[in-house]
Structure formats: structure tokens, C-alpha cells
Amino acid sequence: MDSVARRLQAVFKPGFAKRAAVWFVLVAVSVVGRLWQPVWDGQPLWNVTPLTGAAIASGAAFSHPVVAASVPLTALAVSNLVLPGYGDDWKGLAMAATVALAFSWPVLLGGLVRRRRIAAIIGGSLASSLVFYLATNFATWLLTNLYPHTAEGLLACYVAALPFFRWMPVGDVVWTLALVGGLFACRGEANSAERIPRETVAAA
Q: What crossing angle do the helices spanning 118-143 and 168-203 adopt, rounded to 10°?
């Protein structure tokens, strides 16, 4: 029994419940935020979703990159149960993998975000938007026959995608500031609550 208790204590160590709550909140916000808008061609019409902000916030909240990346990947998997898929063939799987990588790599920016510099947060968000735009439209050009597989066709693909990209950077910056700011605010309140009993004891 003692060994079982020690193992449980190792798993549910102090702070586990808080980290689990942060994980679930980020996933829930991402799913709801991705499904709230109309769908065009299988994807959110305006591309204003919390996924990039949730990925950056999870990178700041969780030191392990796999745990951090599980937030946007889980949100994608859950929301894709409702949204139309990318296709069942290898091209659909390749497109799904491209989208997953484009939404999950921003967790690597968590180290910069932890410094709480607004410029780093906004810059990371805009960089994430640009990478998503370049990667997913390159995959569209490469994996489909919508555009000629030439330099002119690739340029036409990027130009055609601009109307769908125009709101994405704005949404990513707003969601990133909101989620990262909320994360830091919760941490500040938690630290203040932990200091109160110590200060009370010292005063007594």
C-alpha cells in the first residue's frame, strides 16, 4: 500500500491539478474557437481561431514540448470530428500532417514568451501566422491539381489565398495576447495566494 501511495503522490504531485486545468482550458477554448465560424472548403472561413495562441500559451505553460504540443494537436483532432476532413488518401493525410505541424510548432516559442515581452509574444504570433500561410498553401499547390505545378502556379496559389489569410494574423495576435495574458494573470494570483499564509505566519 505504501508503494502504491508513493506512486500516486509522484503522479499527482503538487501543481498537477493546476497544469491539468490549464491543459483542458486551452484545448476547450481552441475547439470552441475553431468551430464558431462558418466553414468553407472544409476549414473555418476567416481562419480566426485560438489554435496559434493556445500553442504559444501551452509552450509557456509546459516545459515538455510533447505535452505542450498535445494541446493544439488534441484540439485539431477533436474539432476535425465535426469539420469536413482532408480526404482519406495519402494526399489528405499529408495535408492533415502539414496543418498539424503548422499549428503545433509555435509551442517552441514558449521560452521567449516566458520572458513576458510583448514584442516577443506579438512577433511569435505573426511568425506563426506566416509559417501557416506558407506551409499550407505550398501543400495545397503540391498535393492538388488546382494550380499548375510551376513557379507561376505556386505564386497564383499564394495570391488566391490572401483573402483567407488577411484576418488570420489579427486573430492570432488577439488570441495569443488574451491566452498568454490570462495564463500570466492566473500565475500571478496563484503566487499571491501562496504568499499570504507565509506573511500571516511571519506577522503572527
A: 140
- Residue 44's H or E segment, with its range, is strand 43-44
Are 61 and 40 in contact, with CB atoms under 8 Å apart? no
The grid coordinates listed for 14 are 503538487
Instruction: Report the alpha-carbon distance of residue 75 to residue 99 in Å, rounded.
Output: 12
Q: How far apart are CA 18 and CA 190, in angstroms?
A: 10
Whether pLDDT at 196 is above 60: no
Give the pLDDT score at 46: 72
Core vs surface per residue 141-167: b (16+ CB within 10 A) or e: bebeeebeeeeeebeebbeebeebbee
| Cα three-residue angle 22-25-27, rounded to 5 degrees | 105
CATH class of domain segment(s) 13-203 = mainly alpha
Distance CA 100, CA 37 (A): 19
